């Protein structure tokens, strides 16, 4: 664990941190809200307590490119261990963590490289790429001292467990990090949609989408320096404005089921813990 801790710089002081908890259902009161929501109501306007003022269960969506660390292809071992160190640190705080990982660092079914291929075959290749990334994260987590399980929507018993909802929830209850691979197991559905689906299936409090920018903007901040960031936005506004946050299927799924989502910058060390602890990081999306 010490090896991974060294990769995670010291986090911000907790004294000045303010909690920021999205409520998927409007008009929830402290009396009627579930435990996870009432916890957020109790702490969002007061200094954040690391152990008490945080989400109980989260789904973290990672892109395949995040594991390549700017190389464009493959897995960067140092970067994977940095990410695993942050996840393991959050798991030590008692938060149930599930991870959905993409496969764009190896193969993407809708990319230029697959334009001459049958879409179903290309998507299946992309699903297998996510399994490679999931195994890399599992290995890094175990080297950090955290227990982890890879669960694939496509069965491959010699490599990982098949996805079974109740078994996944049981793994989380036992303190294991669960890594969901192979998307939904169906072509034409992205890993963003898989993340939304798994978050609802395991009853996560929030979906966390890790990106390379600070949140949601009205334009690409890499291209337009004057792009305006949204501190908070609704799923309906994302659809109306045509913002490229995630595909419309995933957005509609979150909207219809009142699943809150936070978009944040993964490249800032310690941001995973800050978000889960309730600090105001990134952009909040609500129904």
Structural class, from secondary structure content? alpha/beta
Radius of gyration: 18 Å
Task: For the record, give the distance between the C-alpha atoms at the N and C termini, rounded to a whole number.
Answer: 38 Å
User: What is the overall silhouette?
Assistant: globular
Helix content: 25-40%
Adjacency order of strands in the biggest sheet: 4-3-5-2-1-6-10-11-9
Number of strands: 11
- Give start-end ranges of low-pLDDT stretches: 8-19, 21-51
Number of helices: 10
Tell me what you see in this structure.
With 287 residues, this protein is of the alpha/beta class. Helix content is 35%, strand content 16%. The protein has ten helices and eleven strands. The strands form two sheets. It has a nine-stranded mixed beta sheet, sandwiched between helices. It has a two-stranded antiparallel sheet with strand order 7-8. The radius of gyration is 18 Å and the shape is globular. The relative contact order is 0.17. About 15% of the residues have low confidence.
List the helices and strands and how they pair.
Layout: H1 2-5, H2 35-43, E1 57-62, H3 64-68, H4 77-92, E2 96-101, H5 119-143, E3 148-152, E4 161-162, H6 165-173, E5 177-181, H7 191-201, E6 206-211, E7 216-217, E8 229-230, E9 232-234, H8 235-241, H9 248-256, E10 261-265, H10 271-276, E11 283-286
Parallel strand pairs: 1-2, 1-6, 2-5, 3-4, 3-5, 6-10, 9-11
Antiparallel strand pairs: 7-8, 10-11
